[in-house]
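User: I'm curious whether this sequence folds into something compact or stays loose and floppy. Could you predict its structure so I can see for myself?
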Amino acid sequence: MKNTLRPAVIACAIAATFPYLSSSAFANVLAKQKDDQPEHKTNIERVFIKGDRPTTLPTEIPTTIEGISAKAIEKTINAIDAEDALKYLSSLLVRKRYVGDYNHAVLATRASGTGNSARSMVYADGILLSNLLGNGATFTPRWGLVTPEEIQRVDVLYGPFSAAYSGNSVGAVVDYVTRMPEKFEAHVKLVGFSENFQEYGTDKKFSGKQLSGSLGDKQGALSWWVNLNRLDSDGHPIAFANKLLSAGVTSTAGTAVTGAIPGKNPQGLDWWLVAATGQYHTIQDHAKIKLAYEITPTLRASYTFGAWRNAMNSSTESYLRDAAGNPVYSGDVNISGKKYTLNPIDITNSKSQAVDISNSKNQIEHLTHGLNLKSNTKGEWDWELAASLYDYRKDIVRAPTVAIPLANSGGAGRITDGSGTGWNTLAVKGIWRPNAEHTTEFGYQREAFQLRTRVSDTANWINGVPSKRFSAFQGDAELNSIYLQDAWRINATWKTIFGGRFEQWSAHDGAISNTTTTLAFADRDENYFSPKVAVAFRASDDLTLKASLGRAVRMPTVSELYQGTVSTQTIVNNDPNLKPEKSWTSEWSAEQSLNDGKGLLRTTFFHEDTVDAMYSQTNTLVTPNITNIQNVDKIRTNGLELAYQNSDVVLTGLDLAASVTYADSKIGKNDKFQKSVGKWQPRVPQWRANFVASYRANDKLTTTFGVRYSGRQYGSLDNSDNNAFTYFGFSSFLVTDLRVRYKLDKQWSAAIGIDNLNNKKYWAFHPYTQRSVVAELKFDY
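Assistant: Here's the prediction. I'll summarize afterward.
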């Protein structure tokens, strides 16, 4: 059945919309404002600033939305990576471990933690950056395809209340809109940063630099924009080799060593920390070309090409020293009268353990293409055609299968090749405005994902060629959807939005291989419908009340669905009946305009019921127990979010923004793992809060002070990890940030900032960044 819907939907959508196709007009916040003022809202209607902007946002927004402009980012945030723009927005957290963290910077939202990357969607100029090939730390949005200097603004939609998005929007939709010039402009920015990192046996400074340049112009009907960026960053260690004290054997055998650091793991068990690993030196190059041409005054075509290259080397530091003071990386060692083994690896055994202390090399080249054609008549009909492609042109990870120091000069290893992986999207959208009271939006969307991974042995892990296959994995998924959403202004005070989304999901061509055998997975093909409804009531000129309800169905990603290993010609440890996550989410909001429209106070109650949530867990109902991705029967979240923004508070030039989020997120039912019932959902803290105070002393000087807080989190479903401030732990934190920006003259500006000013040491499995100084010099023409 998987191919029956697609031709009919395409034909109907194009036939219905092609004569008049619609631009998703660029949606700003609910009131007019200057770009350098905090965003605020004053009434039910949205203001459409630029109808020709390439954005995923629908015209009518049936949910809470927050945003930040380029000028606000420049003023308040020490922004080096694109995700830094989200630092102070309500209920959001990006798990960024170091500058340039490309593969673990997961976005967390109200009821979704940093282990649930597939429960949010990130776009840039209509191009999908969310990596929906999997769900978890290694499937993060491709933040590197956007640089801070490109950003015109960022908007965030909370919850799955718009029919224009798939079930992956259950947490939030983040939409980056990058610059397109109205006249000639040029920009150059130089950034330097440095971190003093002290943890376990590591006490070092890690530094880096970034250079970015942009040019753009508009000449008649043609506008263009070019951005180049290079980031050179030394990151602090993110992992620590360890040995449980209980794993030691009382003996005099092994090399007697000193330097091991005693500690306790998240479960409170004593262990030794023996080495720092995952110290990444990363060089990232980014290039972006954007072209736009106004075919007619109401018809615009645009094209975006993005390239991102990452060369990354991982190094290690052993804490262990033998009697002569030499570092020890492998073999039997003796710590305080007990023998432990630091695994080298037996490459003749495909099930052997990995090296305890190892390095790696990454060579990555990813490309994106985005094409958009849209009308902007503002009349009865408008339309939009959009397509995008994200291509893993090159994605190579090299790692040794021999221990240091032998690995430092080569030796056997494995090459993981992800070339051929990627995704593409197609959308046909329409807007019908039959009268002043109705705006109807509808469309067809297709998202296709392809995951390809091959692991090969090599004689030289540093520069050798692939030889024999060690393992391989592949899988495809496709989502075809049609949606309809109607906004109806009943009168001057009441407005409703009704919508629905029908989705046809298929997963196919899944296969897994070991050295000799390739076995196929069964195909999947399912259909789902998700209704949406919202209502807004303008109680007074300054007070708006809103309520939204929506269903979201988050389909299994190919890596979740096609899991397992090959054993004796059989795929084991796989759940062929893994179900999609199904969530009902609601929110109730009161928005009060303050200070003659310069400020806003928002109170939002939110609720989410999710059945069949997908988590890695141990199924205790079978013998032997199986650990893999399974469905958790029910998770319920109730919460309250308070958000405040105001300008010229107390004195002229003082802007304040603050938010507090409370979330009671508990596992209500989980038959396969009863010990988790009644426990907190992993990585969703009970409390989150942000505060930003920015003061414009004059036209040249701006100072900003920020505070970020997150409460206690758990990493395990049964909340057994009760020691949070350690490697593998998930801790609370309260950190402060500082930024001072001075405009030297019309073109030149300089800024200096400190992130984590109070030098809080905190963890989300890996250590976060400690106190860091950021300095920048910028030229704008």
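Summary: The longest helix spans residues 5-17. The first strand starts at residue 26 and ends at 27.
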